[in-house]
Amino acid sequence: QVQLVESGGGLVQAGGSLRLSCAASGRTFSFSGYAMGWFRQAPGKEREFVAAISWSGSSTYYGDSVKGRFTLSRDNAKKTVYLQMNSLKPEDTAVYYCAAEQHISSDSRAADYWGQGTQVTVSS
Length: 124
Hints:
Layout: E1 3-7, E2 10-13, E3 18-25, E4 35-41, E5 48-53, E6 60-62, E7 70-75, E8 80-85, E9 94-101, E10 113-114, E11 118-123
Parallel strand pairs: 2-11
Antiparallel strand pairs: 1-3, 3-8, 4-5, 4-9, 5-6, 7-8, 9-10, 9-11
């Protein structure tokens, strides 16, 4: 079955940076045929759209709260998507989830596969 594994989360001070990775695997999974997205969920909050990238990497979309600070990219040869997070704020603290989508969307309900998540904590 399809497996998405996030890495790169951790504790960082406000204003710092982190780079999250999501590696995909699966015998029948065609990574290059899927859009990839990142969502996050903080305690007591709804799951929030962070960013998404088309299968070719030609189109990227960002949630309003992260525009100008986060950058999404993908390497189809490595079956990996990256989320570069700069100028981090305490409100960015959340569990970050990687998702694979047949059709790019900011709606988490459109995701076909999910990773287990990686914790990002930004201290003041």
